[in-house]
Write a structure and sequence with these properties.
alpha+beta; globular; 4-stranded antiparallel sheet; 2 domains; 4 helices
């Protein structure tokens, strides 16, 4: 599947600052990035870094003086979504999990799985298979948490399950926390999303079941095979599209993802996932 992704972001610098952007699709696995163009106005010094942990690429931009800064990014991305029947995904013992998976069992700033253990066990503990638990968590969040409302950058999974309202970021954090409470590794996923209305960056999560990172979107707002990965991490703390050091004022942003394969049929997020995993 081929997509064209783009982002235009404008800041006003009020003093010398540093901006770390995380808007480029990750290069790796079945995702290939080509025809990539990253333009800064005015021309500024920047460098690219690959994260030591997780899957993400950073652009570090030095802004030496006050003024407006415009970031124009565009790329073509080809990716492949593998479909595996859920029945083929056996549980993975913690004792044989890869070392890089183990950190995603732990509580984190926005995913307080230690506070949600009793709820998770009472609601989903009777389900024997890990994949089925993940699907049950996804469906419970979709049915019981209202999409929208007012949340803040401080809203955590514990807040979301209490208030039962949130946006994609909050749905993802809650799904991660409930999975981890049931000793299923889970990590935050942020990316571009084809057919998302209105267009924006989108958050969901990945759960480690059957030896694979399975994509899960409790919002069911977009087709799973219309997602283009930007980054994964423990939660939104290390996957934000922008980290600001200094005095920068956000002005506006335009994000888009369009299919370059018009003959392709998207998987329906509400039905096609039942009994299957997408990795």
């Amino acid at each position: 599947m081929k997509f064209e992704v783009s982002a235009k972001i404008v800041y006003q610098a009020l003093s010398p600052s540093t901006l770390i952007l995380n808007i480029q699709p990750f290069k790796g696995g079945t995702q290939v990035v080509t025809d990539e163009n990253f333009l800064l106005t005015p021309g500024l010094k920047m460098r690219e870094l690959i994260a030591v942990t997780g899957e993400k690429r950073f652009k570090v931009i030095e802004i030496p003086e006050p003024g407006n800064v415009t970031i124009d990014y565009k790329a073509v991305v080809e990716n492949t979504i593998n479909v595996i029947p859920g029945a083929q995904l056996d549980d993975v013992l913690i004792s044989v999990m890869p070392a890089e998976v183990l950190p995603y069992l732990n509580p984190s700033r926005y995913c307080q799985s230690d506070k949600l253990y009793k709820f998770a066990f009472n609601k989903f503990g009777h389900i024997e298979n890990a994949f089925e638990k993940v699907m049950a968590i996804r469906d419970w969040i979709y049915k019981n948490v209202e999409y929208g409302g007012y949340t803040t950058p401080q809203t955590s999974a514990y807040d979301t399950i209490t208030e039962q309202v949130g946006v994609c970021r909050d749905f993802a954090h809650l799904g991660i926390a409930l999975c981890r409470a049931l000793t299923i590794p889970a990590r935050y996923f942020t990316g571009y999303a084809c057919q998302l209305q209105p267009p924006d960056f989108h958050a969901c999560f990945e759960a480690y079941v059957g030896g694979y990172w399975v994509i899960v979107d409790p919002t069911k707002l977009v087709p799973i095979n219309g997602l283009i990965k930007i980054a994964t991490g423990v939660d939104a703390t290390d996957t934000a599209f922008a980290s600001i050091f200094g005095n920068l004022m956000f002005k506006r942003m335009e994000v888009n993802a369009i299919s370059l394969s018009p003959e392709f049929q998207y998987f329906d997020s509400n039905s096609a996932l039942q009994g299957y995993s997408y990795i």
